[in-house]
Amino acid sequence: MTETTTLLAVFPDLEPAADGIEQLRSLGVADENMNVIAGIPVTEAMLGRPRQWSNVPRLAGGGAVTGFFIGLFLAVGTPNLYPILVGGQPLIPIPPSIVVVFEMTMLGMLIATFLGVFLDSYFPSYSPKEYVPEISDGKIAVLFNCPDKKQKEFVKAMTTLGAESVKPAEVQKL
Amino acid sequence: MAVSAKPLSHPQVEMHHDPRQYLMLDPRPRGEMNEMVMDSMLSISWKFWVAAGILGIIVLVCLFGAWGYMIFEGLGVAGTNRPAYWGIFLVNTVFWIGISHAGTFVSALLRVFKAEFRRPFTRAAELMTTFGLVQAGLSIFMHMGRVWLSYWMFPYPNQRGLWPNFHSPLMWDFLAINTYLLASTMYLFLPLIPDVAMARDRSTGWRKNLYRILSLGFRGTEGEWTHLRHAMNIFAFAILPVMFSVHTIVSWDFAVATRPGWSSTIFGPYFVIGALHSGIAAVAMVLIVIRAIMKNMKYFIRPEHFDALGKLMLIVSMAWAYFFFNDYMVQWYGGDKWTDQLLHFHEAGLLGWMWLGMLILNIAIPWLTLWNKKIRSNPWILFIVGLLINVGMWFERYIIIPISLTVNRMPFTWREYVPGIEVLLTIGTFAFFILLYMMATKLIPIVPVWEVQEGQMAHSLRRFGRETVISVSELE
To answer: What is the CATH number of the domain that holds A145?
Structure first.
């Protein structure tokens, strides 16, 4: 089995980073063995990367459905748990129930969206990770695995394409 | 015959103005922008502490001291009476909820419509939403009197198995305000994560620990950005109906009562537009103060932003005037005896000057000033106009609540409302808002640097024939 090393190549801009990713692919690094770390939201299309999957929209939908039923319980269910009929008024008036159901649906959706980011991104996660602070200064880092024996070849390829530094990725406390 | 052609206009060889006057066309390296924001956050002069100390004392005395006194003595120390059961506490509640609308409006609506000028000040506006809602919540608790029983509104049954009545407008308020507070706090936090991670990379000591915890381990991987982008898009769209619902529900507290002056089908949108009127003016005021006081903010907040906000203020002022007149016209035309009495009382009663002042401050002053670009782009004139609009909007809420309660269908109960301890508590909430905001500007990056950089990447200059124009690319 081939031993692999994780390298972190730091590029000054988008263009060289995109070239670097293309070069890595031609050197045999699969997309799932690369990750891009950036200080701004560069899209997959800009770097020619496969589309990222996110569960956030589905979780938001699930939260909305849950919120809808909680709202329904509060507006329709609770008056039936202890019915108090007042002056011929309906026990469950529809317009005020819509207000309650709407608010709870939106609340459910927004809380689920918020928690969805935590779940999908594994937040909070305070363990040491591969990172360099230059990333938040606008640099774009490409993290990739390469065979141990070919490390020099990869470093040279990335440096030629404009990488400011290419070195073994060290986990550090954020 | 010779053919002569005259140019339609003067030849445009270059842009009329230096494009670098626009933030999006005056990019600086990200590291430099980060340093500027960190510097503005970390520079704390003795003047800041003096101001914070004075505000802290005002909060202690006027807010917590006076409130403690009111809790000890009872609501009798307030000016509320029969028939004006609702006084300044609810005026302040409506006012602060109105202020809170601006954050969402500026951040979410302008994000949805991709209005680029929003980028440097979305966070400043979102902070207003959260802190404005805190003041609104405090004002409701003050109004309750027996604040220790506020948990009676929580959605759970009491010892007899009886649940709160969710069909009551006051419970809609409870649900809507809490939904909005939670949603706006989450919406403030999500785009803050990358900036807090930036601050983490540049801090030491207790700040490093604080930002480390708040940034949740964010590095900026593709996955993290994708999830964040999805969430922010969902929030931007979903929080808007919540924003509209909150002030509509607040308006229904009044409109569903069959009282003269209150029972109106147009109160919902009238309240929402009123909230935007005061809120956008407040955003402009806050930005002007931030720009004047905090270091490096002149780079991020520029006359172009005041110009854009000034236009918004003018449009919203026109919309407010339309809704006001619509509401007034129908009530006046209806000819109901008690409504006529109330309208007459508004205009010519003891506080008629307030009604006239409301119209001058909310309509005449914005219309006479904000059509002019020079005025819109002048921060301190815009500050004064914004302040006057907010005074006018506070008058509007005062007219709707205690003044309108004074005149009802039972003339033997008519009685003037004279505020008591409410005056101190009002001063306290304003001081508390300013104090919270001041502290926040020194704890979190007030400018979303990554959003500014993203915007600068999307902007460029293009030549169309002989003219150079600004072009914006869709990066998402």
So the answer is: 3.30.70.120
